Each structure stands twice: as C-alpha cells, then as structure tokens.
Amino acid sequence: GAVVSQHPSWVICKSGTSVKIECRSLDFQATTMFWYRQFPKQSLMLMATSNEGSKATYEQGVEKDKFLINHASLTLSTLTVTSAHPEDSSFYICSALGGGPDEKLFFGSGTQLSVL
Amino acid sequence: DAKTTQPTSMDCAEGRAANLPCNHSTISGNEYVYWYRQIHSQGPQYIIHGLKNNETNEMASLIITEDRKSSTLILPHATLRDTAVYYCVGSGNTGKLIFGQGTTLQVKP
Asked: Which of A90, A104, A116, B71 is most buried, taking the most CB atoms under 10 A from its CB?
C-alpha cells in the first residue's frame, strides 16, 4: 500500500518555541492531506484539511494562527505549532488521500509532541 | 459525514473470529464505510472499505447490510497482534474522515 512518512516521531520542546512536523507521501502524489491530533485515551480529532497550492481549511475551534499548515508540493505538507505551550502536548498524525476511483486515506506514524 | 456508533470494547479468544459491529444509520448514498485500526502510539492502519457490497481482502471481511445502516468487520482468525482500537468511519466526497470513539478489541490467549 501507499506510504506516508511523518517526521519527527517525537519531539520535546520548551514552552514558547515553535515546532515543525513534516508529512510526506512517498510513492504517490497527494493533493489533499489531513492533520489530526489525539490526546491520551481519546479518538483522533481532525484539525485541518491541507490542499496543495491553497490555504488550509481548519475545523471549528482550531486556531489557524497557532497551527500553521503549508502544502507547497504534491508530496509534502507541514504543520508548525507556533509558540507551543504545555496544553499543545499531544500526538499529531497526518494523512494523505491516495488517488484512484475509491480513494483511501493513508496515515503517517504520528508525532508525539511534549512541551515543557 | 455519517455518525458511527460502535461498542466501546470487545474480547475475543485467539484463533477465533472477531466480529466487530458498527451502526451508521445516517450514512448517505455515496458515502463509503471505512475500517481502520490503531495500535497504541501509532498511526491508524487501513483495513478495508466498502459501499454496498460485501468485501474481503487479506486482512478482513466487511459485511454491509442491505439498507447500509450497519456493517460488521470480521477478522477470521484473530491473533494477539490484532489487539487494537478499531474505527468504523463514513466518508463522503470530501475524503476527510471523522473518527468516533472506536472499539477496543482485546484478543486473549
């Protein structure tokens, strides 16, 4: 199946710093990618839809100025958590929409962010 | 996007079939039913999906009722490695998936 690579797998940062997470579709082009986050013992929560060459669409309640999304190419989307605070500590997961008549969503392995 | 309802947890004996139900009574005509599973601290893994007909692949079978209001994921011979949270998700033409709480499947020796 299609492979989505997410980097880094985990990151620890100080409060107030910014963290960038990369999501790459390795063997297919993805015009659309999605970013989720997941708190312990909870389900995945959709944060935003990332479209190549255009602005991301954010879900209600997600601050677009805090979670910057860039989808500059058909194989790369990035999520930058700006001025991170401890409450931003979470598991962030990206996914990419594969092509074909019945498109499937392929997920990265996730990034565990811990803000001290 | 359809709202899905699944039991919170289920147990299954190793080697036996695991049948995981999902209710999606609000699903629209063009929405596929997708099943994913997530093992702790990993990204979700695609299992199977379908629209109207039953589907089978190397991982599982998907049985969709004729009225499409519910479906069942069948793992024919569950192993300990199948212990995970299983998500049933409806997807429309936007491609995005809205996850519910899923079913925690515990496969026991």
From this structure: B71
Whether B43 and A93 lie within 8 Å, measured CB to CB: yes
Query: CA B91 to CA B29: how far, in whole Å?
Result: 11
SS3 B92: coil
Of A16, A38, A9, A10, which is closest to residue A86 (Cα–Cα)?
A16
What CA–CA distance (Å, rounded) separates A39 from A112?
10
Residue pair B24/B109 in contact (Cβ under 8 Å)? The answer is: no
CA separation for the pair B59, A16 (Å, rounded)? 44
Per-residue model confidence (pLDDT) at position A52: 86
Å from B13 to nearest chain A CA?
24
pLDDT in tens, A16-55: 999 999 999 998 888 899 999 999 999 999 999 998 888 8
- Tell me B41's DSSP state: T
